[in-house]
Each structure stands twice: as C-alpha cells, then as structure tokens.
TrEMBL record:
Pfam families: AA_permease_2
Organism: Lacrimispora saccharolytica (strain ATCC 35040 / DSM 2544 / NRCC 2533 / WM1) (Clostridium saccharolyticum)
Gene Ontology MF term list: L-amino acid transmembrane transporter activity
PANTHER family (UniProt xref): AMINO ACID TRANSPORTER (PTHR11785), SOBREMESA, ISOFORM B (PTHR11785:SF512)
Designated name of the protein: Amino acid permease-associated region
Membrane topology according to the record: Multi-pass membrane protein
Keyword Ribosomal protein in annotation: no
Localization terms from the record: Membrane
Entry keyword Nucleotide-binding: no
GO cellular component: membrane
Amino acid sequence: MEPKLEKKYGLFTAIAMVVGIVIGSGVFFKAEKILTATGGNLKQGILAWVIGGIIMISCAYTFSVMATKYQYINGVVDYAEAAMGKTYAYYVGWFMAAIYYPTITSVLAWVSARYTCVIFGFSITGGECMTIACLYLVSSFTMNALSPVLAGKFQVSTTVIKLIPLFLMAVVGTFAGVRSGMTMYNFTHYVSQSSSNGLFTAIVAASFAYEGWIIATCINAELRNAKKNLPLALIAGTFITMSIYILYYIGLAGTIKNELMMAGGESGAKLAFQTVFSSAGGSLLFVFVIISCLGTLNGLMLGCTRGIYSIAARGLGPKPWVFSQIDPATNMPVNSAIMGLFLCGIWLFYFYGANLSSNWFGFFRFDSSELPIITIYALYIPIFIMFMVKGKELNFFNRVLMPCLSLAGCVFMIAAAWFAHGIAAVAYLIVFFVIMALGALLFRTNLFHRRLL
C-alpha cells in the first residue's frame, strides 16, 4: 500500500500556521511602503490596512465554508476542482506550484536576510544578503522535508515569539506616542501629497502583508478533524492578524516622525524599536523581528514543498509518478519538496535581477512579491461564482452574501494592482501566460499518456 499523509496537526497548530504564515515580514517590510505611498498620511494608511484585512477575512470565511464540505490533499486545489472541475483545478495547482509558492517564499527568504543584514551592517543588495537568503531557503526546506513535526513545532514557537515585538510596539509605542504627542503629530502632519494611485499602491502592498492564509489549507489532509478545525483556524487567524497589524501600525506612529520612518528604509523599523526600547533593547527586539520573518518563511516553505505533489497526486504535471511519492520515513513528498526548493532558487535569482540590481530583465521587470498574489485573487473569482451556483443547501449568508463580498474584494484587488503597477503588470502577465502555457503542454501530455494506457 502506498504511504499516505497522516493526520498530525491539531487546531492550535493550524491557527498558529495561519497567524504565523501571515504575520511576519509583511508588516515590517510593507509598513514603510504603505507610509510612503500615502505620503505619510496615517489615516489613509490605516484605511489601506482595513480594506486589505476585510478582503482577506471575507475570502477566508468563504473558503472556510468550503472547508466544511471538501477535504483532500491541497485545500485551494480541492475547492477549485469541486467548483470548476479537474481541468481548472490543475491550472490553479500549477500556478500555485510554479509561481505563487516559490515567488513569495523566495521574497521571504530575502526579507529575512535583509533584516539580518541590518543587524550586522551588511548591504541589503550585496552578495552577503543573497548568500544568507539562500542559506535560509535551504534550512527551511531541510526542516520541512526531513521533519514536518519539528517544522510544525517551530511554526508554533515562532508565532509566539513574533507576537512579542508587535504587541510591545502596539502597547508601549502607542502609550509613549500619546504621552509625548508624537502620535498626534504623525496623525495630523503629512510628509508629502500622496499620488492619485497612493491608496491603491498601499492596499496592494498590504495584500503582501496579509497573504499566506490560503497556504494553511494545504495541510487539510494532515489536520485532525479538518472539517471543524480548518474553518476555525482560518477565521480566528485572519481576525487576529488584522487586529495586530492595525495596532502595530498605530504604535509605530508613536515612536518617530513619519519622515524619519520613510527615510530610514530597511532601518526604519529598527530605529523605531531603538527609540522606544533603547539601543540594546531595540536591537534585541529586532532579532525577534528576524525570527518572525523566519517563522513566516517556514510556513510558506510548508506550502512550497507540497506544491507539485498536490497536482502529481492527481496524476498530472511533470512526472507525476515521481512527484507523488511519499517518503515512508518522513511521511513527506520529498521529490516535490526538492522541486519546490529549485523553483524558489529560480525566483530568488529573478527577484535579485529585477529588483535589487541593475535592470537585468529589461521590459520583463516586475515586483514578484505582489503581482502573483493579485493573480490568486483573480483565480478565486470563478471558484466563488460556481460555489454560489452549486451551494444550494447553504443559507443566504454563506451562499450569496459572503461570496459576493469576496468577489467584490477580488475585483477591487485586481483594479488596485493595475493602477499601482501599470506597465509592469503587463510584463508579469506575459511571463504568467508563458508559464501557464508550459503547464498546458504538460497537461496535454498527461492526457495523451493516459489514453495510451
């Protein structure tokens, strides 16, 4: 009998995965971009966090309803198959495996390395940073591929650790800012006039900070009592995330002037922590920030290692008989994990060439940390529509109201990305269609082999 994935995760681990995957680098990495995009307008920045959070929560709720009906190997691919059929599910799985998982995982490896370089005074665009990023990628892969139980425990531990600097900044920063008047100053003084696309740019940036919750559905088949625990994890995790982000953002406003935060770049968060907690205390808490980034990387790698497996288990994709194998010793799809690491390496190379160095790719230069995330929102749209058509046994709230709200959020995110990225979105779409065409070729090859058999 072929080995199967075991039920090894509980509710607390699932919630920790949702919170741990989402909370991490994004709130530190994108907070300064949101501040810059809105010209230092904190009210507009908070609005961006709220809009992004509402869209995340509405989509998570709709998927949580689906989770009470379907549970197989890979949550989002299962939902696509149940709603749209096996062909559409294959293309969703191919996109997740070839683009979505490795792009954001590779960016997270760089972000973790970036903050490590801030501590040691290295350049964030130099060889040291990229070497550390590769080291983090390989380390995370090794933990997930060889010991998934240890990876789950690491996820829970880093989730607790990463909440420490966020809560401290939210509470202490807000208290200190109200007392010193810094919070009032930052809320009433704008650094510059935001552009016409400023709010859209901020919301798209927030989408990166909020992304990752859908990856928690990839442990559907490994979650004990998944029909009950996965919906609870999705709903609780997303609400917790939005609340923490907004409180942290307000606390940050009580530390230093917005213009200093915006000018500080990658050192802005470190400067804010040192201002409130002294130089030594701020540096220590900044180490916690790095740990939080590594926790997010671990959660993303969890999805990345299972990406190719999710379609190979259906007999599709490249060499499905190879990538569907489960190692009996580790109970992990090791071949799929190795391919996931390889794809991460390719996308990390692209991210460096397109965003951190001289323009290596000419016209084909885009932000791989944001645009793939917007694509997944586009792929949700037909799933939500068909879910409303097929979910006749559900009440109005679950069948119509929440899916419609989720649909509106997806359309809004697509429009916001177009306004925010402009011509870069066209470059990304060309690359996207080329990769999807390769997936289509593999799909036809799989069908041809099946006919021969």
